[in-house]
Specification:
Largest sheet: 8 strands, mixed
Radius of gyration: 21 Å
CATH architecture of the largest domain: 2-Layer Sandwich
Number of domains: 2
Number of helices: 14
Order of helices and strands: EEEEEHEEHHEHHHEEEHHHHHEHHEEH
Distance between the termini: 9 Å
Bound molecules: adenosine-5'-diphosphate
CATH class of the largest domain: Alpha Beta
CATH topology of the largest domain: Nucleotidyltransferase, domain 5
Structural class: alpha/beta
Shape: globular
Number of strands: 14
Length: 398
Protein backbone atom coordinates (compact mmCIF):
# COMPACT_ATOMS: atom_id res chain seq x y z
CA UNK A 1 0.00 0.00 0.00
CA UNK A 2 1.02 3.62 -0.57
CA UNK A 3 0.19 5.87 2.36
CA UNK A 4 0.34 9.65 2.17
CA UNK A 5 1.28 10.94 5.62
CA UNK A 6 0.19 14.52 6.26
CA UNK A 7 1.27 16.82 9.08
CA UNK A 8 -0.70 20.01 8.73
CA UNK A 9 0.04 23.30 10.50
CA UNK A 10 -1.85 26.57 10.21
CA UNK A 11 0.28 27.77 7.28
CA UNK A 12 2.30 24.67 6.44
CA UNK A 13 1.81 21.10 5.27
CA UNK A 14 4.49 18.41 5.54
CA UNK A 15 4.02 15.20 3.59
CA UNK A 16 5.62 11.83 2.97
CA UNK A 17 4.49 9.16 0.56
CA UNK A 18 5.39 5.83 2.14
CA UNK A 19 5.19 2.38 0.62
CA UNK A 20 4.06 0.35 3.60
CA UNK A 21 5.06 -3.05 2.17
CA UNK A 22 8.72 -2.16 1.83
CA UNK A 23 8.50 0.53 4.56
CA UNK A 24 10.27 3.01 2.32
CA UNK A 25 9.72 6.72 1.81
CA UNK A 26 9.07 7.28 -1.90
CA UNK A 27 9.00 11.09 -1.69
CA UNK A 28 8.53 13.83 0.86
CA UNK A 29 8.19 17.56 1.09
CA UNK A 30 6.80 20.68 2.63
CA UNK A 31 4.36 23.40 1.60
CA UNK A 32 5.14 26.67 3.39
CA UNK A 33 3.46 30.03 3.82
CA UNK A 34 0.06 28.73 2.74
CA UNK A 35 -2.32 31.67 2.46
CA UNK A 36 0.59 34.13 2.86
CA UNK A 37 2.78 35.91 0.30
CA UNK A 38 5.73 33.85 -0.90
CA UNK A 39 4.23 30.36 -0.59
CA UNK A 40 6.37 27.52 -1.86
CA UNK A 41 6.53 23.75 -2.13
CA UNK A 42 9.79 21.90 -1.53
CA UNK A 43 9.63 18.38 -2.90
CA UNK A 44 12.14 15.56 -2.74
CA UNK A 45 12.00 12.25 -4.55
CA UNK A 46 13.85 9.54 -2.60
CA UNK A 47 17.54 9.53 -3.50
CA UNK A 48 17.38 12.87 -5.31
CA UNK A 49 17.85 16.53 -4.40
CA UNK A 50 15.20 18.92 -3.11
CA UNK A 51 13.27 20.97 -5.66
CA UNK A 52 11.72 24.21 -4.43
CA UNK A 53 8.91 25.82 -6.43
CA UNK A 54 7.49 29.18 -5.44
CA UNK A 55 3.83 29.20 -6.28
CA UNK A 56 0.81 30.98 -4.79
CA UNK A 57 -1.27 28.77 -2.48
CA UNK A 58 -4.42 30.49 -1.25
CA UNK A 59 -5.37 27.64 1.04
CA UNK A 60 -4.61 24.05 2.09
CA UNK A 61 -6.69 22.61 -0.75
CA UNK A 62 -4.32 24.33 -3.18
CA UNK A 63 -1.42 22.87 -1.23
CA UNK A 64 -2.80 19.31 -1.40
CA UNK A 65 -3.36 19.75 -5.15
CA UNK A 66 0.28 20.81 -5.60
CA UNK A 67 1.46 17.85 -3.52
CA UNK A 68 -0.47 15.49 -5.84
CA UNK A 69 0.93 17.35 -8.85
CA UNK A 70 4.50 16.81 -7.59
CA UNK A 71 3.90 13.18 -6.64
CA UNK A 72 2.55 12.43 -10.15
CA UNK A 73 5.02 14.66 -12.05
CA UNK A 74 6.86 12.97 -14.93
CA UNK A 75 10.28 14.02 -13.58
CA UNK A 76 10.15 14.38 -9.81
CA UNK A 77 7.05 12.23 -9.27
CA UNK A 78 6.90 8.68 -7.92
CA UNK A 79 3.39 7.56 -8.92
CA UNK A 80 1.38 7.76 -12.14
CA UNK A 81 -1.91 8.95 -10.71
CA UNK A 82 -3.92 9.66 -7.60
CA UNK A 83 -5.23 6.07 -7.79
CA UNK A 84 -1.89 4.88 -6.45
CA UNK A 85 -2.50 6.59 -3.10
CA UNK A 86 -4.34 3.96 -1.05
CA UNK A 87 -4.80 5.86 2.19
CA UNK A 88 -3.95 9.09 3.97
CA UNK A 89 -2.63 9.20 7.55
CA UNK A 90 -3.00 12.50 9.39
CA UNK A 91 -0.89 13.54 12.34
CA UNK A 92 -3.38 14.90 14.86
CA UNK A 93 -2.21 16.88 17.86
CA UNK A 94 -4.91 16.83 20.53
CA UNK A 95 -7.44 14.08 20.99
CA UNK A 96 -8.37 15.08 24.54
CA UNK A 97 -9.76 12.15 26.51
CA UNK A 98 -11.75 11.01 23.51
CA UNK A 99 -9.06 9.11 21.62
CA UNK A 100 -6.94 6.45 23.25
CA UNK A 101 -5.84 5.19 19.84
CA UNK A 102 -5.85 6.04 16.16
CA UNK A 103 -9.10 5.95 14.19
CA UNK A 104 -10.54 6.05 10.73
CA UNK A 105 -11.71 9.60 10.08
CA UNK A 106 -15.48 9.93 9.80
CA UNK A 107 -17.85 12.89 10.18
CA UNK A 108 -18.36 11.83 13.79
CA UNK A 109 -14.59 11.82 14.46
CA UNK A 110 -14.27 15.29 12.95
CA UNK A 111 -16.96 16.57 15.35
CA UNK A 112 -15.18 15.07 18.34
CA UNK A 113 -11.83 16.59 17.28
CA UNK A 114 -13.60 19.95 16.92
CA UNK A 115 -14.78 19.61 20.50
CA UNK A 116 -11.10 19.41 21.55
CA UNK A 117 -10.16 22.62 19.68
CA UNK A 118 -10.15 24.61 22.92
CA UNK A 119 -7.30 22.44 24.20
CA UNK A 120 -5.08 23.03 21.16
CA UNK A 121 -6.28 26.21 19.46
CA UNK A 122 -3.25 26.46 17.18
CA UNK A 123 -2.96 22.84 16.15
CA UNK A 124 -6.35 21.12 16.00
CA UNK A 125 -8.07 23.55 13.61
CA UNK A 126 -5.05 23.22 11.30
CA UNK A 127 -5.27 19.42 11.42
CA UNK A 128 -8.96 19.63 10.53
CA UNK A 129 -8.23 21.97 7.60
CA UNK A 130 -5.76 19.35 6.32
CA UNK A 131 -8.42 16.66 6.56
CA UNK A 132 -10.97 18.82 4.73
CA UNK A 133 -8.46 19.63 1.98
CA UNK A 134 -7.57 15.95 1.43
CA UNK A 135 -11.26 15.04 1.41
CA UNK A 136 -11.91 17.62 -1.28
CA UNK A 137 -9.04 16.47 -3.48
CA UNK A 138 -9.31 12.71 -2.81
CA UNK A 139 -12.88 12.02 -1.65
CA UNK A 140 -12.60 8.26 -2.17
CA UNK A 141 -9.33 7.68 -0.30
CA UNK A 142 -9.72 6.44 3.31
CA UNK A 143 -8.13 8.61 5.99
CA UNK A 144 -6.83 7.80 9.45
CA UNK A 145 -6.04 10.17 12.34
CA UNK A 146 -3.09 9.38 14.61
CA UNK A 147 -3.11 11.45 17.80
CA UNK A 148 -0.08 12.80 19.67
CA UNK A 149 -2.00 12.42 22.91
CA UNK A 150 -3.39 8.90 22.42
CA UNK A 151 -0.47 6.85 23.75
CA UNK A 152 -0.63 8.74 27.07
CA UNK A 153 -4.27 7.93 27.74
CA UNK A 154 -3.08 4.99 29.90
CA UNK A 155 -1.67 7.40 32.53
CA UNK A 156 -3.27 6.88 35.94
CA UNK A 157 -5.22 9.70 37.58
CA UNK A 158 -2.47 10.36 40.11
CA UNK A 159 -0.15 11.20 37.19
CA UNK A 160 -2.51 13.23 35.03
CA UNK A 161 -4.34 15.34 37.61
CA UNK A 162 -2.95 18.72 38.64
CA UNK A 163 -3.17 19.85 42.26
CA UNK A 164 -6.09 22.14 41.43
CA UNK A 165 -9.74 22.18 42.50
CA UNK A 166 -11.23 19.01 40.99
CA UNK A 167 -14.08 21.00 39.45
CA UNK A 168 -11.70 22.33 36.74
CA UNK A 169 -11.03 18.79 35.64
CA UNK A 170 -14.76 18.02 35.75
CA UNK A 171 -15.86 21.15 33.94
CA UNK A 172 -13.01 21.85 31.52
CA UNK A 173 -10.95 18.65 31.46
CA UNK A 174 -7.90 20.51 32.77
CA UNK A 175 -5.36 17.69 33.18
CA UNK A 176 -2.05 16.48 31.82
CA UNK A 177 -2.45 14.93 28.34
CA UNK A 178 1.11 14.63 27.07
CA UNK A 179 2.31 14.85 23.46
CA UNK A 180 4.84 13.16 21.12
CA UNK A 181 2.90 9.98 21.91
CA UNK A 182 3.51 8.45 18.48
CA UNK A 183 7.25 8.90 19.01
CA UNK A 184 7.34 7.60 22.60
CA UNK A 185 5.35 4.54 21.51
CA UNK A 186 7.52 3.90 18.43
CA UNK A 187 10.84 4.35 20.26
CA UNK A 188 9.97 2.26 23.32
CA UNK A 189 8.71 -0.49 21.04
CA UNK A 190 11.83 -0.42 18.89
CA UNK A 191 14.10 -0.38 21.97
CA UNK A 192 12.51 -3.59 23.24
CA UNK A 193 12.85 -5.11 19.75
CA UNK A 194 16.57 -4.21 19.57
CA UNK A 195 17.13 -5.76 23.00
CA UNK A 196 15.19 -8.88 22.00
CA UNK A 197 12.75 -8.39 24.89
CA UNK A 198 9.03 -7.97 25.31
CA UNK A 199 8.12 -4.32 25.99
CA UNK A 200 5.57 -5.65 28.50
CA UNK A 201 8.45 -6.80 30.73
CA UNK A 202 10.37 -3.50 30.71
CA UNK A 203 10.48 -0.13 32.45
CA UNK A 204 11.60 2.34 29.78
CA UNK A 205 12.23 6.10 29.93
CA UNK A 206 12.08 7.77 26.50
CA UNK A 207 13.70 11.20 26.18
CA UNK A 208 12.37 12.85 23.00
CA UNK A 209 14.74 15.79 22.66
CA UNK A 210 13.92 17.91 19.61
CA UNK A 211 12.96 21.57 19.43
CA UNK A 212 9.95 20.46 21.39
CA UNK A 213 11.02 17.97 24.04
CA UNK A 214 9.30 15.56 26.37
CA UNK A 215 10.08 12.54 28.54
CA UNK A 216 7.81 9.56 29.09
CA UNK A 217 7.84 6.70 31.58
CA UNK A 218 6.73 3.57 29.72
CA UNK A 219 6.00 0.74 32.13
CA UNK A 220 5.09 -2.68 30.75
CA UNK A 221 4.31 -1.12 27.38
CA UNK A 222 2.10 1.70 28.66
CA UNK A 223 2.72 5.40 29.25
CA UNK A 224 2.39 5.95 33.01
CA UNK A 225 3.69 9.52 33.14
CA UNK A 226 4.91 12.18 30.75
CA UNK A 227 6.38 15.63 31.07
CA UNK A 228 4.14 17.69 28.76
CA UNK A 229 0.79 18.69 30.17
CA UNK A 230 -2.48 20.31 29.14
CA UNK A 231 -0.41 21.89 26.36
CA UNK A 232 3.10 21.17 25.05
CA UNK A 233 4.52 23.95 27.23
CA UNK A 234 5.07 21.97 30.43
CA UNK A 235 8.06 19.88 31.43
CA UNK A 236 11.55 20.13 29.99
CA UNK A 237 13.33 23.32 29.03
CA UNK A 238 13.01 23.24 25.22
CA UNK A 239 14.35 25.13 22.20
CA UNK A 240 12.06 28.13 22.76
CA UNK A 241 9.65 26.88 25.45
CA UNK A 242 10.17 27.40 29.16
CA UNK A 243 8.89 24.06 30.43
CA UNK A 244 7.95 23.89 34.15
CA UNK A 245 7.41 27.25 35.86
CA UNK A 246 5.92 28.62 39.04
CA UNK A 247 2.53 29.72 37.64
CA UNK A 248 2.70 32.93 39.71
CA UNK A 249 5.48 34.09 37.35
CA UNK A 250 2.94 34.71 34.60
CA UNK A 251 1.04 37.49 36.37
CA UNK A 252 4.23 38.78 38.04
CA UNK A 253 5.91 39.45 34.69
CA UNK A 254 2.66 40.69 33.14
CA UNK A 255 2.34 43.35 35.84
CA UNK A 256 6.00 44.37 35.73
CA UNK A 257 6.11 44.62 31.92
CA UNK A 258 2.60 45.99 31.44
CA UNK A 259 1.59 43.13 29.15
CA UNK A 260 -1.22 40.59 29.27
CA UNK A 261 -1.02 37.10 30.73
CA UNK A 262 -1.49 35.74 27.20
CA UNK A 263 1.52 37.75 26.02
CA UNK A 264 3.61 36.23 28.82
CA UNK A 265 2.47 32.76 27.74
CA UNK A 266 3.53 33.61 24.17
CA UNK A 267 6.95 34.57 25.53
CA UNK A 268 7.04 31.25 27.43
CA UNK A 269 6.30 29.45 24.15
CA UNK A 270 8.43 31.35 21.68
CA UNK A 271 11.21 33.28 23.40
CA UNK A 272 12.14 31.11 26.36
CA UNK A 273 13.88 27.75 26.73
CA UNK A 274 17.54 27.58 25.70
CA UNK A 275 16.91 30.52 23.34
CA UNK A 276 15.85 32.74 26.24
CA UNK A 277 18.45 31.39 28.64
CA UNK A 278 21.25 32.06 26.16
CA UNK A 279 20.17 35.71 25.94
CA UNK A 280 18.49 35.17 22.58
CA UNK A 281 21.61 33.58 21.04
CA UNK A 282 20.03 30.43 19.56
CA UNK A 283 17.41 27.73 20.09
CA UNK A 284 19.55 25.28 18.13
CA UNK A 285 21.60 22.80 20.15
CA UNK A 286 24.35 22.66 17.55
CA UNK A 287 24.92 26.42 17.80
CA UNK A 288 24.79 26.31 21.58
CA UNK A 289 27.24 23.42 21.93
CA UNK A 290 29.69 25.14 19.59
CA UNK A 291 29.35 28.50 21.36
CA UNK A 292 29.71 26.87 24.80
CA UNK A 293 32.91 25.15 23.62
CA UNK A 294 34.19 28.55 22.49
CA UNK A 295 33.63 30.12 25.90
CA UNK A 296 30.11 31.60 25.60
CA UNK A 297 28.98 31.44 29.25
CA UNK A 298 25.30 32.03 28.60
CA UNK A 299 25.21 29.23 26.03
CA UNK A 300 26.93 26.96 28.55
CA UNK A 301 24.43 27.85 31.29
CA UNK A 302 21.54 27.22 28.91
CA UNK A 303 22.87 23.74 28.09
CA UNK A 304 23.59 22.99 31.76
CA UNK A 305 20.07 24.01 32.80
CA UNK A 306 18.64 21.96 29.94
CA UNK A 307 20.57 18.81 30.81
CA UNK A 308 19.91 19.22 34.53
CA UNK A 309 16.15 19.32 33.92
CA UNK A 310 16.33 16.16 31.79
CA UNK A 311 18.38 14.46 34.53
CA UNK A 312 15.82 15.41 37.18
CA UNK A 313 12.97 14.01 35.11
CA UNK A 314 14.81 10.74 34.58
CA UNK A 315 15.24 10.51 38.36
CA UNK A 316 11.55 11.29 38.90
CA UNK A 317 10.37 8.71 36.39
CA UNK A 318 12.66 6.07 37.85
CA UNK A 319 10.77 6.65 41.11
CA UNK A 320 7.41 6.69 39.26
CA UNK A 321 8.12 3.19 37.92
CA UNK A 322 10.01 1.97 40.97
CA UNK A 323 13.00 1.31 38.75
CA UNK A 324 14.19 1.61 35.18
CA UNK A 325 15.65 -0.92 32.73
CA UNK A 326 16.19 1.18 29.61
CA UNK A 327 16.73 4.88 28.89
CA UNK A 328 16.31 5.97 25.24
CA UNK A 329 17.41 9.19 23.58
CA UNK A 330 15.61 10.24 20.43
CA UNK A 331 14.67 13.20 18.11
CA UNK A 332 17.06 15.86 16.74
CA UNK A 333 19.25 16.55 19.75
CA UNK A 334 18.73 13.16 21.42
CA UNK A 335 19.83 11.31 18.29
CA UNK A 336 22.61 13.61 17.15
CA UNK A 337 23.99 15.79 19.87
CA UNK A 338 26.77 13.97 21.75
CA UNK A 339 27.47 17.03 23.93
CA UNK A 340 23.90 17.19 25.21
CA UNK A 341 23.83 13.43 25.90
CA UNK A 342 27.12 13.65 27.76
CA UNK A 343 25.82 16.50 29.92
CA UNK A 344 22.70 14.50 30.78
CA UNK A 345 24.89 11.46 31.46
CA UNK A 346 26.45 13.31 34.40
CA UNK A 347 23.19 13.07 36.35
CA UNK A 348 22.15 9.49 35.67
CA UNK A 349 25.35 7.56 36.29
CA UNK A 350 24.11 6.58 39.76
CA UNK A 351 21.50 4.37 38.07
CA UNK A 352 24.29 2.26 36.56
CA UNK A 353 24.06 3.57 33.00
CA UNK A 354 27.81 3.41 32.25
CA UNK A 355 27.68 5.48 29.06
CA UNK A 356 30.74 4.76 26.92
CA UNK A 357 32.19 8.09 25.73
CA UNK A 358 33.37 6.58 22.40
CA UNK A 359 29.96 5.08 21.58
CA UNK A 360 28.35 8.37 22.60
CA UNK A 361 30.03 10.08 19.63
CA UNK A 362 27.71 8.24 17.21
CA UNK A 363 25.07 10.37 15.50
CA UNK A 364 21.64 9.44 14.21
CA UNK A 365 21.93 5.66 14.50
CA UNK A 366 20.50 2.94 16.67
CA UNK A 367 23.20 2.23 19.22
CA UNK A 368 23.53 0.97 22.78
CA UNK A 369 25.62 3.55 24.63
CA UNK A 370 26.10 1.61 27.88
CA UNK A 371 28.89 -0.84 28.50
CA UNK A 372 27.87 -4.47 28.36
CA UNK A 373 26.43 -5.65 31.66
CA UNK A 374 25.34 -2.15 32.74
CA UNK A 375 22.46 -2.17 35.19
CA UNK A 376 20.45 0.22 33.01
CA UNK A 377 20.72 0.06 29.23
CA UNK A 378 21.09 3.54 27.70
CA UNK A 379 20.54 3.75 23.98
CA UNK A 380 19.88 5.97 20.98
CA UNK A 381 16.80 4.99 18.98
CA UNK A 382 16.00 7.32 16.07
CA UNK A 383 12.30 8.12 15.98
CA UNK A 384 10.18 7.90 12.84
CA UNK A 385 6.78 9.40 13.49
CA UNK A 386 5.76 9.30 9.82
CA UNK A 387 6.48 5.57 9.54
CA UNK A 388 4.52 5.01 12.76
CA UNK A 389 1.58 6.95 11.29
CA UNK A 390 1.80 4.96 8.05
CA UNK A 391 1.75 1.66 10.02
CA UNK A 392 -1.26 2.77 12.04
CA UNK A 393 -3.03 3.85 8.85
CA UNK A 394 -2.45 0.49 7.19
CA UNK A 395 -3.58 -1.38 10.33
CA UNK A 396 -6.89 0.48 10.39
CA UNK A 397 -7.59 0.60 6.69
CA UNK A 398 -6.80 -3.03 5.81
P1 LIG B 1 11.44 19.29 15.94
O1 LIG B 1 11.00 18.12 15.10
O2 LIG B 1 10.86 19.31 17.32
O3 LIG B 1 11.35 20.62 15.24
P2 LIG B 1 14.09 18.08 15.79
O4 LIG B 1 13.74 16.73 16.30
O5 LIG B 1 14.39 18.23 14.35
O6 LIG B 1 13.00 19.15 16.22
O7 LIG B 1 15.34 18.60 16.64
C1 LIG B 1 15.96 19.81 16.42
C2 LIG B 1 17.21 19.92 17.28
O8 LIG B 1 18.09 18.82 16.98
C3 LIG B 1 18.00 21.19 17.00
O9 LIG B 1 18.28 21.88 18.20
C4 LIG B 1 19.31 20.68 16.39
O10 LIG B 1 20.41 21.42 16.83
C5 LIG B 1 19.43 19.28 16.88
N1 LIG B 1 20.19 18.52 15.85
C6 LIG B 1 19.69 18.09 14.67
N2 LIG B 1 20.69 17.51 13.93
C7 LIG B 1 21.82 17.61 14.66
C8 LIG B 1 23.19 17.21 14.47
N3 LIG B 1 23.58 16.58 13.36
N4 LIG B 1 24.07 17.46 15.45
C9 LIG B 1 23.68 18.06 16.58
N5 LIG B 1 22.41 18.48 16.84
C10 LIG B 1 21.50 18.26 15.91
Amino acid sequence: MNVLVINCGSSSLKYQLINSDSETVLAKGLCERIGIDGSAITHQKAGEGKVKTEIPMANHTDAVNFVIEKLTDAEVGVIKSLDEIDAVGHRMVHGGEEFAGSCVITEEVIKVVESCNDLAPLHNPANLIGIAACKEVMPEVPMVGVFDTAFHQTMPKKAYLYGLPYEYYDKYKVRRYGFHGTSHDFVSNRAAEILGKDRKDLKIIVCHLGNGASITAVKNGESVDTSMGLTPLEGLIMGTRSGDLDPAIVTFIAEKEGITAQEVIDICNKKSGVLGLSGGFSSDFRDLAEAAANGNDMAKTALDAYAYRVGKYIGAYTAAMNGVDVICFTAGAGENNAEVRALIGQYIGFLGTNIDSEKNKVRGEEIILSDEGSKVVTMVVPTDEEMAIARETVRLVK
